[in-house]
Amino acid sequence: MRILLVEDEKKIASFIERGLTEQLYSVDVAYDGDRGLYLAVINPYDLIILDVMLPGKDGFAVCQELRQQNIDVPILMLTARDDVRDKIYGLDSGADDYLTKPFAFEEFLARVRVLLRRQRANKSTTLQVADLKLDQLTHEVTRAGKNIELTSTEYALLEYLMIHAGQVVTRTMISEHVWDQDFDSFSNVINVYINYVRKKIDAGFSQKLIHSVRGRGYVIRE
Ligand code: CA
Fold first, then answer.
1. Which domain holds residue 133?
2. Which of 86, 117, 148 is the last residue before a domain boundary?
3. Ligand 1 centre from 13 Cα, in Å?
4. What rounded mean pLDDT belongs to the chain?
5. Which one of 34, 140, 170, 202 is CB 3.0 to 4.6 Å from 56, fit for a cystine?
């Protein structure tokens, strides 16, 4: 599950990002409204968490523009003010839910789960390649019915490969979508993590699913 967080207060942003990453969500962060809008238009997110008071376009404007462009991703708005007019205005501009800062992180996560469930209500949450299954909602991964434990980075990497099953995923794509965007795609870290995931997914099975494509990247396929 890929989430965009638009929040200009760095401390709050990093707190939320860390908390969501611990829950195995893959998070992109924007620190102003214009960047947030740009990312929301070019990437397929499962949820956007949008602060109201932002430099550049404010949260209401970002929300309205996304809805005008028929981008129907769920939006959870955050505001520092507990003002009913703000709440109504936020919902009127197309937000799905609203949370006043400061909030209890447990409540925040519960609302995130509700919105993601709603978003996925009509879609299957399970990705499958051969006998390997990954549930994007519960983060459960199984091969041949056997449970596989992954770290958050390994999970994010495998989910990304499975979303693109059958297609070659380049190191640049991985570095942009699984790690932070400024991650150096030429470092050895991607190889290391591919090998971790491969060990957990393919070891002991005659049919290997994760393949290296020389000079190009990696692919998961039957
Ligand atoms: Ca703010």
1. 126-220
2. 117
3. 10
4. 89
5. 34
The CA 111 to ligand 1 mean position distance, Å, reads 20
Q: Based on the number of CB atoms within 10 Å of its own CB, is 92 exposed (0-12), middle (13-18) or buried (19 or more)?
A: exposed
State whether 146 and 216 are in the same domain.
yes
111 and 14 within one domain: yes
Judge if 113 and 131 occupy the same domain.
no
Based on the domain organization, do 47 and 137 belong to the same domain?
A: no
182 three-class SS: coil
Enumerate the β-bridge partners of residue 196.
Answer: none
How many A from CA of 177 to the centre of ligand 1? 25
**Rounded distance between C-alpha atoms, residue 53 and residue 33, angstroms:** 9
pLDDT in tens, 175-218: 877 775 455 656 688 889 999 999 999 999 999 999 999 988 99
User: What would the mean pLDDT of 135-150 be, rounded to a whole number?
Assistant: 93
Kindly give the distance from the C-alpha atom of residue 52 to the centroid of ligand 1, in angstroms, as a whole number. 6
